Amino acid sequence: MTDKRNMGIDTLRGLACVLLVAFHVIGEAPEHGLRLDWDHPFAMFSALFFHLRMPLFAMLSGFVYAYRPIHRGEGGKFLTGKARRLVLPYLFAATAFAVVNTVLGGAFAVPLGEFWQVYLEPYAHFWFLHSILTIFLVIAALDWIWPRAPLQVAIGFLVVTSLLFLTPFGGEIKLFSFFQTPYLAPFFALGLVINRMEMAKVEGLSRQLVSTVLVGGLVTMFAVHAYIVLSDPGHELLRRDFVALGLGLCFSGALIMHRFTIAPLAWVGQYSFSIYLYHMFGALGLQMVYNFIGMPDASLGLALGMIAGLGAPIVFQIVTLRVGGVAPLLALGLKSRRKASPRAAAIPRPASAI
Hints:
The chain is mostly helical and 354 residues long. The protein has 15 helices and no strands. The relative contact order is 0.16.
């Protein structure tokens, strides 16, 4: 991928960020977030897009990986890049979040003797990085073995991971959040397939068929999902069943194949990795305010939560890049830009990791 940003992809990143922050502000159950009943419009809105948030993040990761896959002779460079871009900021953000929660007595407080779990088992929202790193390693190995068949590798990966999605594969293996990896893998795979189809210039009937299947599946399965949510707001939504797989693939895939540009969302999307890492800090601070002043009106609470969840990470990234030194590397996985021109420093254009 060139240095010029892909506005369509950034728009979808921004959309995924908005849905992610809204989900955590609203809360996944009446005892979380804004403490809303299942049948509250905001709660039902969050449930309607339950099968889009993380599948879209994973599919975008697969789509972007296709621009810079592993190449033979560059395995060390690939692994070093992933460690810099994902592992370092994960260690920094997860440690900071765990420390803050533990000191302040937050919901994600960790006893000192169990602090190792922050890094080796699912913790808060950081499980995504465990699972996506595993997927990167698996697809990199496949691309290294079959370097001349990228599209076939992607299609095969999609078929196998979709089948595993519908099985108990992964079970309750918490080490590096492995039990969540089969949940993300098919969505990552479809993003890879779509990009490699585009790079292979697959047009005509084949592309039209894929588009028709995705759009048709989206309309059909979203109608079923919406009926379930609206008729039974408290219905448990499963992450791994046929509806979750079909709707996640069709919804995210249709958006990527027919991507569009909305400037405000694209601007937010430039900061998607920072928002993913640090949005819960804003939500935690807001929750502390709520505990002090009492819960506000739901609309006001959602507005304040969105501002805090999206705004705080964006400000943090801009300030961190201006501070320079090792701070951008540790906190964001980005190289320092202090030597850049004043305009470049004022308007950072980071390459998002997810």
